[in-house]
Every structure is written in C-alpha cells, then in structure tokens.
Amino acid sequence: MADTAGIFSECAIAFVPSASLPPKLISSLQAILTEHGATAVDYRRDGSLPIERVTHIISNTIDFPQYIESQAFMIPVVSTQWITVSISRRRQAQVRPFSPDPRMIFSEVMVTCADIPPMDKESILGATMALGGQESKDAGKLTTHICALSMDHPKVVSALEKNWKGKIVLPHWFDDCFKLGKRIDEGPYLLPEPEILKKGPDEDLDIPSNNNLVGASSANPEFISLSDGNSARPPVTVFQDKKILLGADLKITGRLENALKDIIIYGGGRLVQDVDDCDTLICQYRDGEQYVRASQSCKEVANLSWLYFLIAHNEWTSPLHRLLHYPIPKNGIPGFKDMRITVSNYGGEARIYLENLIKACGAEFTKTMKADNTHLITARNSSEKCKAAPEWGITVVNHLWIEESYAKCEIQPVNVKKYNHFPIRTNLGEIIGQTTFNESRLRDLFYPGGEETMSPRAKRKRKILEAAEDNAYSHGPMEGVVIGEVAQGESDAMQEDNSEEDDIPSAVSKKSRPSRALATPKRVRPADAGKENETPTSVSTGGRSAKTKAMDRLSLIAPDIALYEKEKKRNTKPGTPFGGKHAAKLTEENVNNKKKSASHKDGDDDEDRPAKKSRPSLPGVEMRIILTGFTRWVGSQIKEDQDRRKLRDLGIQIVQEGQPCDYLAAPHVVRTVKFLCALARGPTVISSTFIEKTLETGQLQDVEDFILKDAEAESKYDVNLEKSVARAKAHRGKLLRSIPIYCTDKIKNGPESYRAIAEANGAMFMIYRARSGTTIKPTTAEQDGFAPPEPVYLLSGTTSEEKQLWKRFKEMAINGHMEPRVVSPDWLLDVAMAQQVRFDKKFLLEAE
C-alpha cells in the first residue's frame, strides 16, 4: 500500500470561507492536509490571501474577491472534493476536474462508457474531459455516471450488483449538454426508463425553479426592509471596511438613502462622496463621469440590485457574474431598438428576468405574440406560440441568445446552433441566469483608455486583469476559464516571498528579500501523479506559455507597486492626517473658512447686524475605536466627556460595544465579552496607550507604532493575535456559522454574556432547559447521507442541577445524528480568541 503521509508535502494551501465551506469544515480539512504534509497558508492582517505564497486555493465557489488575482498567477482553485479524491487515490488528483468554475460543466463528473460505439465514445469522453470531467475504466466508488444504451451491459449489471450509487444515462444527455454549453438535469435521460424515449416533446413538463435568479431578476428592484420590527437586524458584515459611493444617477429617495447608509455603516462600512475615495460605486447606467472614472480605476461597479443582494445574503458576489447586477447601458444594445420580443414556457422569476433583460437591451417586450413581433424566446419548442411563430415569420430562439447578446454587448446571430437547440424533455428555464460578463469587452466599449490618469493601485489591478485574460481561453465553451497549473520549472518570480503589501511577485530586488521555506514551497508536479486523466498536451502547453507571458507582464509592475505603497502610507495611514490628499482637503477647508470669516467681518450688507457666530464643524471620523480595560476614566465622568471631545476633534470616535469599529484598544489581551465580541469583526487591535499618548500630545499618533503585543497572554491562551485578527477579517463574523451552541440557564455569570460572544461569531445560540422547543429533530445516518455526525455543544457548569441536563442533552443529540459535547464555557472563549474552530478534550465535562 502506498504511503499517503506526504502526498501534499509540496503544497501551500489556502481556504476561502463561504456558505458551502464554513470555518468549522475548513478547520477539519486543514488538519487533514497538515497530517498529509501540506503547509496551511493563513490570511494577511487585512483578511486577504497572500497569493504569492500559495500553490492551491480550496474554494467551493469562484465568488471571492481574489479569484481574478488567482487566475493571473494561474493558482489552481479547486473544490473540497479534490482533497477527498487525492487522499483516496494516495496521490494528488489533477486540478481540472475539481474547478468550482460553473463554466466547467462536467466538473466532478467521472464517467465510464458501456455499450457505446467507439467513435461516439471517443467524442463523449474527449469533450467531457475538456469541460472538467474524468474517465474511469470501470464503475468504481468515485464513478458518478455510466453512459449506456441499455441496462444489459455487463458493466452496468456488475455495478448494480455492488450497490453502486451513481447514475446511468443515455449518451443523448452529454450531446445536449455539449450543444447548449450548459449542464442540464440528467433526469429525463436516466435508464432504465428515460423520459426522452417514453414521452413526446408536447407532453406537459413542469416549469423548474432556478436559484440563479434569486435577487437578480431586475436591475431596479424595490427595496424591502429585512427587519421584522421585533428583532434587530444582524450586521451585514460583507460591508466591513468597504467605502461605498451611491452614484448621482440612482435618483433614490432620502429615506431609502438613509436606510442604506444605516445598513452599510452598521455593517462596518462607510459612505463616501467622491469616486477617488470609494472601493465600490453603485450606479444605474454605464454612463457618466463617475462610472467611467470608477471603472478605469478598476473599482467595483454595480447597481442597486447587487447591493440589495449583498444585504439579503451577507455574502460577497461579483457584479459581473449576474447580468442584472451590473449597470445597464443607457441607450440599450445597438440593433435592438426596433425589435418586439415575447417569451414562452418561462415562469416566475425567469419570466420577470427575461422581460427586464429585453428592456435593458433596448427592445420592446410584449406579453402576447402578434404578427409584428420579431422574436420569440422560449424554453421549449412546444407551445401555441412556437407553432405559430414560423408561419408569421417570427424568429424562435432560447434565452441563451438574449443573454449572450447582452453580455457581449452586441446582437448575436440567431442561427448559432445552441440558440436553436431544445432538448425534448427539458425546460431550459433550469439553466437561465448562468451567463456572465467579460470585463475586457465592457472596457473596450464603455471605458477605454485612462492609463495616463490611473493611480498606481489602478495600474496594478489593470495588470492583474490583463494577465488573467491572457491566461484564459479566448473562445469556445471554455471561454474565460483559467485552469491553474502546478508544474516544474516555474518562473523564479513566482517563488519570491514578498512583503505583506506586495501582492504581485516582482523581478526586482530578489537578492534583498529573505526566503522563508514554509512560505515559499516549490511548486512541482508530484512524481507519482501518473497519467490518469492527464491534462491534454495542447492545453498544458498553452497554459504554460500563458503563465510565462503573464509573469513577464506582472514583473513590470514593481515601480507602480512601490509608488502605490508610498502613496498609501501618506494618504490613508491613520495617525498621519497631514499627508497627501487629506492634507489638501484640510488646507482647502481652512482657506474657505478664512474667506468666509473675512466676508463676515467686512459685512457690506449687514453692517449694523452682529454676525451670527458659526458653530465649528467637526472633522470627519477617521478612526472608530472600541475601548476595553481602560482605567483612565474610572470614577470621573467629567474627565471622560472632556477626553472624548478632544478625541472627536482629532477625528477619533469612541464607539460602544456592538457598533462597527476599525480598532480595538486594550492595555493587554483580555478575554472579556467586549474584547471577544469586537474581535469577531476583525478590527486592528492596538494598545490603549495610543489613546493616552494622543490625549497628552493633542496630536494623532502613528497607529502602527501601537499595535498590541502581549506575548505572555498569547502564550497563556495559545493564540497569535495577529493571525486571530486576520482570520476574523476573512470570516466576517461567521466563524461559528451553522454551529448549534446550547447553554444551561444556571451557568456561572449567566448565559447572556456567552450568547453575545456566540452570536457575534455567527453561531446558533439557545438556552437548554430539557424542554420542548430546544430539541434537535431526530434523524438517522441514512437520512443525513451517511455523513459523519456534526458536533453540537452544551456550555455548562458543574452544579448538580446542570449535571442533570447532560444525559437528556446527549440523548437528544444522538437521536438527531449529532455528536454531543458538554463543555465548559472556556471552549467558546478559546475559539473566539483564536478565531478558529478548534477543540480539545480538556474542555469536556464528564459526569462523575
């Protein structure tokens, strides 16, 4: 048996948390990878991934901010299934079949063919593997599909005898998927009773639901408050540290603007008034100075629909991944103006989406079909409209035509095969909403040029986008896809370890940089990888040349990075308010104030009227700080009020517990409720000496000189504070998402303090009294898909009254196919402090 101890020994692996990859699963997978030789790469202080130190990124989605950067570096992004398959094979699996990119429609499909003619078999397997699939010789445990014409083939019979769990499909399924460029449901193609052979195309078929359109069916949705009036809205942490600009063309009411402002600020973000200051522009049209400037500066640009989607789901998504999350063209798409388009066989959100998409293109949408209609968009080629359309000279197409015309910003020819393909027992509404934008196409049409006015940061982002474009397939069903590659002989620049700020490897100053073995593992293809499912030579060669070209281009950015870092330190570093742009603003304000003051003194029109003394305006809030363990104000409310006013005059606001903050100030590391709840938001943790020194001198200090360091406490609690802050920024208050935590009513210090810590980290917190209403629904292992039981926690003391609850709690958990863990409250404090879901048996409370 092959040794599996070091199969990931050459890998430096980073994880991207998401709804489908919560921190608790990340923690267990990291432990498995480390056991098999991998190096876990942690987040930077700002919560981002140090791409230059990573060989693989584990993510179940491509919806994360650094995905484009990973494409530029050709870092493989793979799903968690890659880990499982690699371990089961006792060697690293190929990365292509495990891409979470939805354009790889056969990702995680492993197929074996039975009674298929050789030519058909070859074409099916070739196309399947090109789009992320794999071939297996026989139907093993990892095989997901058998492609067959009947149930009589020995391969099928043998698989069924072994209680194989996959799907047996007709080759027609692969053929229809290839023609559409999308993966449709296998249901109508499943043997032994495939619908496509048993039912006709005109027989009734249910209209499918589609999650791709939830919150994305309109570019101008009506805003709906998420608060039910009885409970406070949890903070929308996706806005943490973000600077949002609401564009001038939105024309929203003052009431709605205030509501959005409250949500963004409560989530830790800020509203700004200038394009240069923002991270994200929310606007309605692809038009105007704000749109062009923001787009050329590579800032995020989206519409209100995208903003509402983030508020509703509290998950980041790229506005380019859903067509109606991006601003619409002000005058539509050229050529659509005189079209009259109707739809058929779509329902619910899909019908609303198509209506809005047609209007956004500039065409007229009609509810009914008449002779003057030009196009019919249908999900099936079977309805009264579909039969009448050819007779009336109306063009019949599926929704892919209108989607791709909108995404490519030009009318697509209607005679392309995929626009006219209608599988007989499939409603194409199931694949609607999967088309995405190509940023380079938008740039060419709506915001070309601008290089001469770009900031160093914008130039850096532009180089990353261009490198990602060069690495991607430029046409065909895989257009826009980048397959990361781990190969021998990578560019030396890719192996350089850079400072925290330098996200892109540079070819300069190589000798001056110290190398760190763990941070910069060599990227090599494992010697025992074998040739099973090997990437085709042509693809590998293209990827390698693209990578070399990308690295050559990326190495040119070094001067831009240096200038950007210099500018960033001058302009944005808290504690240096008199540098760069901020100084210019303050100078301008002072000049204006002096002019106003002089005009009041001269007072030509109102000589006899005494000038009304204007109230000095406070400077903007530059730093939001939560203080804990601060003894300066103990016993002196007057002194506290005076000091708070002094700090506010310097742009520092001391905020209360539960409010958004940029900094957490404490004399040392403490495990108080206030400290742990604030830490969950990922603020920079500084020494409260910063406040003392600022008050003593009357001037803002350089906050970087006051980063809290407490080696004794870190050793005592087994944490690294810098890593805890970085993890908190990445998790955005969702460290304990979906983890149920119960607590006894009689626990020492009361349950409410533990509730605050648990809920600040996204846990489901409940008081356990062994009564109805606090039970876990009974399930079996089979009902849970034979998945291992998830842990459920009970925070408890050791009083006799609390011990009586333990047996009932364990029975409830076991009946619900969960693993009961009765723990001391220290477990929750330990997890919240480390910002890592970890467990040690020392926290377990055992009954005597």
TrEMBL record:
Alphabetical list of SMART domains matching this protein: BRCT
Protein name: BRCT domain-containing protein
Domain BRCT, chain residue ranges per copy: 3-100, 101-191, 336-408, 793-845
Skewed-composition ranges (Acidic residues): 493-504
GO cellular component, one term: nucleus
Domain of life: Eukaryota
Lineage start: Eukaryota, Fungi, Dikarya, Ascomycota, Pezizomycotina
One Pfam match: RTT107_BRCT_5
Compositionally biased tracts (Basic and acidic residues): 525-534
GO term, biological process aspect, one: DNA double-strand break attachment to nuclear envelope
